[in-house]
């Protein structure tokens, strides 16, 4: 089996299992203030790290390319509370434009 | 006697009104569930396209939406794998992002009071949208219908959108020519935005973003997200104590 298949299956089954655990583990296991605070803050931390890494990383190098233009447009539109569709389409259009211009 | 008749009339009238209210509430909930489902379709289409552009097959892409069924985790996985990141880091980030659904389940299961045979299904569709709707409608006593109608709407439309996006992505070829390499960053910003209402969250986000990007030249591809995000989250929790 290819590595990609392993990644897809482990991710899919693992996340599905995490959802099932929420319905079977005793409630008091998850009542700890620290566990709750950690799981609460994780999405903010991971999503934010994903924003910068998916924009500025090319392998293990930092680069400034057309994705940065897309990010800039996305940040402005999200701050203006634009709908998701507009955010993504405008960001992709900006990135495609810069990519075409920079050849 | 007369008083009794009146009270019966009043009670039955009140019941009729409340039954009508119930029906109206259920209609309102179903309409909202449909709108929420429609609002995730652009996200599903971009996920499908980015996933195929990152090297996953249409089948693998659709399996993620059917089985994993959690947008942020799915996008994180294909984004890290597509950027050449290690499988270990990609999986760890994906599973950590998915762990919040487990916490949602622990909170929402008491509202649903689903029979044992339905619980595995409820767990599979316990995500941001269905949980939020269940909690929003719980005070009026409609937690279960809000949960199930939102879950059904999002599950069906998310999967249809994924197929569409995957097929579109297969026809597009290079991600950067179509600007689709900016879809990941844009999606992450859109998911992050509503979570930044509090100053403490904004501090965590800045620390995570900065640490992660500084780690890019120093660590294997894929791990900076995990290191930056994980350290920022741990630091935030340690500071609260």
Can you walk me through this structure?
The complex is a heterodimer of chains A (103) and B (241). In chain A, a hairpin with a 2-residue loop joins strand 1 (57-58) and strand 2. Chain A is mainly alpha-helical and 103 residues long. In chain A, helix 3 runs antiparallel to helix 4. Chain A contains four helices and two strands; from the N terminus they run H-H-E-E-H-H. With 241 residues, chain B is an all-alpha fold. Chain B has two domains: 2-179, no CATH class; 197-241. In chain B, 80% of the residues lie in helices and 0% in strands. Chain B has helices spanning 2-53, 58-68, 71-82, 87-112, 119-124, 128-137, 143-172, 183-192, 199-215, 223-240. The chains are: A mainly alpha (103), B mainly alpha (241). Chains A and B meet through helix 1, helix 2, strand 1, strand 2 and helix 3 of A and helix 1, helix 2, helix 3, helix 4 and helix 5 of B.
Overview in brief:
The complex is a heterodimer of chains A (103) and B (241). Chain A is mostly helical and 103 residues long. Chain A has a domain at 1-31.
In angstroms, what separates the terminal alpha carbons of chain A?
38 Å
Q: What string gives the helices and strands of chain A in order?
A: HHEEHH
Name the shape of chain B in a single word: globular
Order of helix and strand elements from N to C terminus of chain B: HHHHHHHHHH
Low-confidence stretches of chain A: none
Key terms for this structure?
heterodimer, A: 103 residues, mainly alpha, 4 helices, B: 241 residues, 2 domains
């Amino acid at each position: 089996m290819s590595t990609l298949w392993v990644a897809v299956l482990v991710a899919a089954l693992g996340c599905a299992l995490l959802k099932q655990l929420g319905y079977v583990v005793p409630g008091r296991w998850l009542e700890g203030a620290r566990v709750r605070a950690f799981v609460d803050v994780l999405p903010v931390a991971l999503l934010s790290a994903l924003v910068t890494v998916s924009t500025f990383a090319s392998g293990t190098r930092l680069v400034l390319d057309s994705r940065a233009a897309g990010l800039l447009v996305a940040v402005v539109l999200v701050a203006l509370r634009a709908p998701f569709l507009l955010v993504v389409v405008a960001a992709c259009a900006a990135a495609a434009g810069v990519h075409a211009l920079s050849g | 006697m007369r008083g009794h008749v009146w009270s019966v009339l009043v009670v039955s009238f009140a019941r009729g009104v409340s039954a009508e209210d119930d029906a109206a509430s259920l209609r309102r909930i179903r309409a909202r569930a449909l709108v929420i489902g429609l609002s995730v379709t652009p996200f599903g289409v971009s996920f499908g396209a980015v996933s195929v552009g990152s090297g996953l097959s249409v089948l693998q892409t659709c399996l993620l939406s059917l089985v994993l069924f959690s947008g942020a985790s799915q996008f994180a996985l294909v984004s890290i794998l597509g950027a050449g990141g290690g499988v270990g880091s990609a999986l760890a980030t994906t599973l950590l992002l998915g762990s919040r659904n487990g916490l949602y389940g622990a909170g929402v299961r008491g509202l649903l009071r689903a029979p044992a045979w339905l619980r595995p299904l409820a767990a599979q569709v316990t995500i941001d949208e269905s949980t939020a709707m269940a909690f929003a409608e719980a005070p009026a006593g409609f937690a279960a219908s809000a949960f199930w109608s939102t879950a059904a709407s999002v599950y069906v439309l998310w999967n249809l959108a994924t197929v569409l996006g995957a097929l579109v992505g297969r026809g597009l070829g290079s991600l950067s020519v179509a600007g689709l390499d900016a879809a990941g960053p844009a999606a992450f910003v859109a998911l992050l935005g509503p979570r930044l209402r509090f100053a403490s969250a904004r501090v965590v986000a800045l620390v995570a973003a900065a640490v992660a990007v500084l780690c890019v030249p120093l660590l294997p591809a894929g791990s900076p997200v995990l290191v930056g995000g994980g350290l920022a989250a741990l630091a935030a929790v340690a500071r609260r104590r």
